[in-house]
Amino acid sequence: MFLWDSSDKQTPVTPETALVGRDAPVLPSPAPHAVLGTDILAEPGPDQEVLYLASGCFWGAEKLAWELGADATAVGYMGGFTPNPMYEEVCTGKTGHAETVRVLYTPSRLPTERLLQAFFESHDPTSLNRQGGDIGTQYRSAIFPTTPQQEELAGRMIEAYQEVLENNGFGKIVTEVRSALETTPFYPAEDRHQQYLYKNPNGYQCHARTGMACPLPGSGPVATVE
């Protein structure tokens, strides 16, 4: 990932202190998904939903989503203040954004609880503003649901996973859950970041995680994450 010489990347910014940004998007003409061939910013159809997930470096998080069976994925920036930020700006910690994956999916094929289970198991949700060696508010853990049902399910799964983690010596889950309607828009990242690990198979992936399985609603723990 981009390295920025700053000792203040974990301090949240405000609308007044955030970088100015720009009116024009940094991805004006998104290419089709390099793996799925779909429109990466397609609006959901009648049987589809969109869920925004932030779990550290968005390169590996996006790959996980398309491998799970998402209909389309896109990486970008969300939850901050700077309009249409560039990647290098986000890396300063001065935009307020989290690296986020937009997941378009069909719940009948990829249930929301399975998507959230993979989200929790693929990073350390007890780590504040960092994942492994990736440090800064851009790497914070966050869920931006687009429906009340998604938000309610996220809350129930956090409660269940918290019990598992506490019983195994981990701390409090710090995952932010905020409706996508109550935060700033999702700004797509530059083309070079879209499906990055398909374009760069040996590229960097953050593997910070607890190793603890996240229970699905109404069931016990599932297979332990390796």
From TrEMBL:
Catalytic activity: [thioredoxin]-disulfide + L-methionine + H2O = L-methionine (S)-S-oxide + [thioredoxin]-dithiol; L-methionyl-[protein] + [thioredoxin]-disulfide + H2O = L-methionyl-(S)-S-oxide-[protein] + [thioredoxin]-dithiol
Name of the featured protein: Peptide methionine sulfoxide reductase MsrA
Gene that this sequence comes from: msrA
Cellular component terms per the entry's GO annotation: cytoplasm
Alphabetized UniProt keyword annotations: Oxidoreductase
A GO BP entry: cellular response to oxidative stress
Function (record text): Has an important function as a repair enzyme for proteins that have been inactivated by oxidation. Catalyzes the reversible oxidation-reduction of methionine sulfoxide in proteins to methionine.
Active-site residues, as the UniProt record annotates them: 57
One example GO MF annotation: peptide-methionine (S)-S-oxide reductase activity
InterPro entries (UniProt xref): Met_Sox_Rdtase_MsrA_dom, Met_Sox_Rdtase_MsrA_sf, MsrA_MetSO_reductase
Family designation: Belongs to the MsrA Met sulfoxide reductase family.
EC number: 1.8.4.11
Domain Peptide methionine sulphoxide reductase MsrA: 51-206
Superkingdom field: Bacteria
